[in-house]
Amino acid sequence: MTTEAPSAPLSLGFERAIDLFLEDAFALGRLTTARSAAEYRRTVRKHADDAVGLTPRETGREHVKLTLRRWEHPNTKRRKRSMLVAFYDWVVEEGLRPDNPARQVRAARAREPRVRRLTLDEVRAVLKAATGRSERRIVYLAACAGLRCSELRLLQGLHFARPGWILVSAELAKGGRERWLPVMIDLVPVVDEIRTTTEPEHYVLPATRWVDSDRGYAPVERPERPCDRKTIWRRVRRIGRRAGIGTTVHPHQLRHAFADRVTRTAGLHAAQALLGHASIQTTEGYLTKPSPDELVDAMAKVTLWEDGER
Fold first, then answer.
1. Which of 30, 54, 34 is CA-nearest to residue 42?
2. Which fold has domain 120-297?
């Protein structure tokens, strides 16, 4: 006598379906970080709000289109649609419905991200303008190791335990793609300072809280907790103004500057490994367009006058 596994209830509601979907996604390695899972959960919950009173079995493409109208930028629409596609693929695989309504909605046309790239002199000016331990850690780790903001804030002393290397472990890295970064010469003093002052379980960029003292309110570091992403953005923006950069500077610009430099000097495959890109096509994007410094060099030779006419 054989027994069949119980089938999923056809009336499964959105909240329970989301829990089971994320549980399976983690088990299969399709999701690796709590942050990604939280974004999936928020997206599908918004979709559930747009399909009020319905279960995942009863929704249609019009409900998917209604949810996607929440976001204006086409790249965001594409990302959110892919999340709904993944969710409804799971619903179909579980036998809750025969079709995927998200796949019946066309993806928005991708738009190239607008990134203001920095020249090498501007990056150097930002590094020189950083004052204090936290500011130096932020800009040097972003510009000389190419770390993402999400990776920066979660670095701990244990990630610097191997001399000459920085570990971007799976729980930090995008897509769980662990990588080891050799410490370039410009970064050595900052890494040495981190290794001698930061405990293994303490965060390199700790959170702070304001406490009342005899001298008034003062910030106190909480090394057992990471700082907020917005704190990193605000500090980099402030450093950029101090450096005299004529445009707003944010952490990802420093990563792009690192990518420009390392792609042209170390080659595509080394750059892909150092940057943690899933696809080499992403890395190739840094070679398909000239760098800001290459544009400056090109224009230095361009003039509307003949020699001696000016």
1. 34
2. hpI Integrase; Chain A (1.10.443)
Q: Which of 89, 73, 74 is nearest to 30 (CA)?
A: 89
Tokens of 70: 């929440």
Residue type at 16?
R
Q: How far is CA 95 from CA 10, 60, 263, in A?
A: 8, 16, 46
The pLDDT value recorded for residue 32 is 78
Tens of pLDDT, residues 173-224: 988 889 999 999 999 999 999 999 999 999 999 998 877 666 667 778 899 9
Dihedral Cα 91, 96, 101, 104, nearest 10 deg: 90
Q: Which of 184, 7, 197, 195 is nearest to 94 (CA)?
A: 7
Identify which of 157, 175, 176 has the alpha carbon closest to the alpha carbon of residue 166.
157
The secondary structure of residue 203, as a DSSP letter, is B
Is the pLDDT at 4 greater than 50? The verdict is: no
Look at strands 165-168 and 216-226 and give their pairing: unpaired
CATH class of the region 14-104: mainly alpha
> What are the residue ranges spanned by the domains of the chain?
14-104, 120-297
CA atoms of 216 and 263, how far apart (whole Å): 49
